[in-house]
Amino acid sequence: MTEQLMCTLTLDPDHRPVLLLRGEVDLATADQFRDAALGAVRRHYRVVFDVAGVMLLDASGLRVLHAVAREARRLGRPAPVLRGVRPLLARSLKITGLHDAFEREPAWPEPGLRGPVRSARAGMAAACAIP
Q1: Secondary structure element (H or E) that encloses residue 77, with its range
Q2: Which of 26, 41, 82, 131 has the fewest Cβ atoms nearer than 10 Å?
């Protein structure tokens, strides 16, 4: 059974848009991830994808990341920054050749700081959930 995927677009303390991802990205949740991720990339010049709370990101999730990098390039924008990449995801990015497509930054040091810093402004909210 697939764990629920939660995607929330917020702002970090530097006012950068951050797409917080929690749960699993697999075949059942990839479309919701794609909608939220592409929407964020199309609305904002530079986005951070906080993946520290992603327990699984399978091939369908990697395809979404590839599509996001391609869309950012098409728009003349940098690909999103990946925050909090776990070792298994880092290995998958390397194996697929996507490791060079995204800049990375470490997870925030305290788990409480990875949550939404403040609510996003109207029109910035993006959420996806599978009941």
Answers
A1: none
A2: 131
Q: Six-digit token pair at 127?
A: 């959420």
- Rounded alpha-carbon distances, angstroms, from residue 18 to 21, 27, 44, 54: 9, 23, 10, 14
* Residue closest to 68 by CA, chosen among 100, 23, 17, 102: 102
The token duo for 69 is 């990098």
* Greater model confidence, 38 or 113: 38
In CATH, the architecture of 6-128 is: 2-Layer Sandwich (3.30)
Q: Residues 24, 2: contact at Cβ < 8 Å?
A: yes
Q: Each residue of 37-69: pLDDT tens digit? A: 999 999 999 999 999 999 999 999 999 999 999
d(CA 43, CA 93): 25
Q: What does the block give as tokens for 11?
A: 């702002």
> In this structure, what token pair is assigned to residue 9?
């677009």
pTM value is 0.82
